[in-house]
Amino acid sequence: MSETMPPEFWQAVEQFNQGEFYACHDTLEALWLEEVDPLRRFYQGILQIAVACYHLSNLNWRGAAILLGEGMNRLRDYQPTYGGIEVTHLLEQSATLLQQLQALGPENVESLRQQLQANQVGEEAIALSETQPAPCWPQIVLVAPS
């Protein structure tokens, strides 16, 4: 399936992994609008996770929580890999972020965003607790060539 993915998809993956979540949304939305299922639903799942991260970066706790859940639900059927990416990996990272978001609650969204941004630029990441790892933005991992 990866050889059939359009160049715009790989552009969106790069944007996502660089934390350019709104740009990723725009790129994927253009593909999503022209596509049919099952690829349409796949694009939509990634798009929703990207928008969730965008909402979180803008302190919109509710929007982030809702769209993380919706995006994850859309991508579940594409595991373990689809379209040249490790879907299971993206879902696991997204689930961890959603758990951290829910555990901290809306009143602590600024703290979570600061920790995510610090981790993104390579500063020392601080774990939320002994059982919760340091927060990090989800990353889209490409399927290793066989």
UniProtKB/TrEMBL annotation:
List, alphabetically, the InterPro entries matched: DUF309, TTHA0068_sf
- A Pfam family of this chain: DUF309
Q: Could you tell me what this protein is called?
A: DUF309 domain-containing protein
Domain of life where this protein originates: Bacteria
